[in-house]
Amino acid sequence: METECRRESLELAQRIKAQAAGRGMTAGQFALNWVLRNQLVTAVLAGPRTVEQWREYLGALEHRFDDADEALIDRMVAPGHPSTPGYTDPKFPIAGRKARSAAA
């Protein structure tokens, strides 16, 4: 919970929710469309717990995720980085480089 529920991440989630609502979709639909727009992703393995969640997932396909949406996300969170610049998950600290000795 320390990593996922940071104040900064929750604030960004609220901004994303507002963007999604302004586009007529839920935050979940917006997120699913964000994933589907990635050229490196060939499929999404959805795991809804309820029929309502499955319907929400399907509803995402009724909406477009456009360049403006992509730009908004990139402005909020730099691609390839966590939502808080410089944040390192305390469970997975960066160990740095460990060079082999010249004798090895």
Overview of this protein structure:
The mean pLDDT is 86. The radius of gyration is 18 Å and the shape is elongated. It has a domain at 7-76. The chain is mainly α and 104 residues long. It starts with 6 loop residues before the first helix and ends in a 28-residue tail after the last helix. It has four helices and no strands.
Structure class: mainly alpha
Q: How big a fraction of the residues is strand?
A: under 5%
Number of helices: 4
Question: What is the share of helical residues?
Answer: 40-55%
Shape: elongated
Radius of gyration based on Cα positions: 18 Å
**Biggest sheet descriptor:** none
Question: What's the helix-strand series?
Answer: HHHH
Number of strands: 0
Summary, kept brief:
This protein has 104 residues and is an all-alpha fold. 44% of the residues lie in helices and 0% in strands. Helix 1 crosses helix 2 and helix 2 packs across helix 3.
Helices and strands in order, then pairings?
Elements: H1 7-22, H2 27-36, H3 51-60, H4 67-76
What attributes characterize this protein structure?
104 residues, mainly alpha, 4 helices, 44% helix, elongated
